[in-house]
């Protein structure tokens, strides 16, 4: 009898602890928990959504897909998708896959796909293909970002007119007033030369400005544009968000920022937490895709 009681007690204890485990929790900007169904209802009212991510977070990518699927249903298909992970000069290859002219292998062989594309981004692309949605390659080709980091923004003026179509319209404003950019400067340390620092920040800026321009060029009234990007590109209302607001302050934009927590209940972190409209808290030990 005593052994049976112990077994029941252990089962109850494990059950209670299992119930306390959380894979994720969304919060509003005011710090209130929000369930995914209410989150989707609120997101449907926005023109543009930045869904930030930690590139190697499995739950982050799963939530991007699930929220997108739910928004598709809520908005009766009035969605446009776009992502940092695809560069402007690969748009035709992406389109050919979406319309069935390319199979998955041809897309892989002809476009510069990220190493984690198959596990983390193909489900989103395949959803767009299945639902006949536009999927916009928003980012600047990485060679121009690399060139900027080495030679500065002015070096882009020497590009051909064709090459310039893959970059946001020049000149691109770069300022340390943009949230996140002072953090980049700090990361480089006091020993870094001024020109080197600004070239490094400018390389980030042409990515953000180009993604912002890509979104604005492809935005359609009445539809919601969902953009998937690394958390740094939109956190604290900086990066892409900042560049869009400079050009079109009237667009209603929501930012979903991502934070990791060691707390089992996934409460709001006490440090380094600057909330945006919606904030995703995930366990620090969540399974990584690489």
- Structural class call reads alpha/beta
Main sheet characteristics: 8 strands, mixed
The strand order across the widest sheet is 2-1-8-7-3-6-4-5
Helical content stands at 40-55%
- How much of the polypeptide forms β-strand, as a percent range? 15-25%
Please give a structural write-up:
This protein has about 290 residues and is α/β, with parallel strands linked by helices. Helices cover about 45% and strands about 15% of the residues. The chain is built from eleven helices and eight strands. The chain has an eight-stranded mixed β-sheet with strand order 2-1-8-7-3-6-4-5. Strand 1 and strand 2 form a beta hairpin. The longest helix is centred in the C-terminal third of the chain and has 25 residues, at about 195-220. It is globular, with a radius of gyration of 21 Å.
List strands and helices in order, with pairings.
Blueprint: H1 2-20, E1 25-28, E2 33-34, H2 36-43, E3 48-53, H3 58-74, E4 79-87, H4 91-98, H5 104-110, H6 117-131, E5 135-139, H7 142-151, H8 161-164, H9 181-188, H10 194-218, E6 224-230, H11 239-247, E7 253-261, E8 278-283
Parallel strand pairs: 3-6, 3-7, 4-5, 4-6, 7-8
Antiparallel strand pairs: 1-2, 1-8
Helix pairs in contact: 2-3, 3-6, 4-5, 7-10, 9-10, 10-11
Key words describing this protein structure:
eight-stranded mixed beta sheet; disordered N terminus; globular; 11 helices; alpha/beta; 45% helix; 290 residues
Outline:
The chain is of the alpha/beta class and 290 residues long. The chain contains eleven helices and eight strands.
């Amino acid at each position: 009898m005593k052994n049976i009681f112990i077994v029941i007690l252990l089962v109850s204890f494990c059950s209670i602890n299992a119930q306390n485990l959380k894979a994720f929790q969304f919060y509003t900007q005011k710090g209130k928990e929000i369930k995914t169904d209410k989150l989707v209802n609120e997101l449907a009212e926005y023109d543009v959504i930045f869904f930030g991510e930690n590139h190697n977070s499995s739950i982050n990518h799963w939530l991007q897909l699930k929220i997108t699927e739910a928004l598709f249903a809520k908005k009766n298909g009035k969605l446009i998708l776009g992502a940092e992970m695809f560069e402007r000069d690969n748009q035709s290859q992406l389109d050919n896959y979406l319309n069935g002219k390319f199979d998955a292998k041809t897309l892989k062989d002809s476009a510069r796909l990220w190493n984690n594309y198959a596990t983390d981004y193909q489900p989103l692309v395949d959803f767009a293909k299945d639902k006949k949605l536009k999927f916009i390659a928003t980012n600047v080709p990485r060679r121009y970002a690399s060139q900027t980091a080495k030679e500065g923004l002015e070096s882009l003026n020497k590009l051909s007119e064709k090459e310039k179509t893959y970059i946001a319209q020049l000149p691109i404003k770069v300022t340390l007033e943009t949230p996140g950019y002072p953090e980049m400067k700090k990361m480089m340390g006091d020993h870094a030369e001024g020109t080197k620092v600004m070239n490094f920040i400018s390389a980030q800026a042409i990515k953000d400005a180009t993604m912002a321009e890509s979104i604005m060029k492809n935005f359609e009234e009445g539809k919601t544009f969902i953009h998937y990007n690394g958390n740094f590109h939109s956190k604290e209302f900086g990066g892409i968000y900042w560049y869009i607001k400079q050009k079109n302050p009237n667009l209603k934009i929501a930012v979903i920022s991502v934070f990791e927590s060691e707390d089992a209940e996934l409460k709001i972190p006490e440090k380094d937490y600057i909330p945006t409209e919606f904030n995703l808290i995930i366990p620090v030990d969540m399974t990584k895709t690489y």
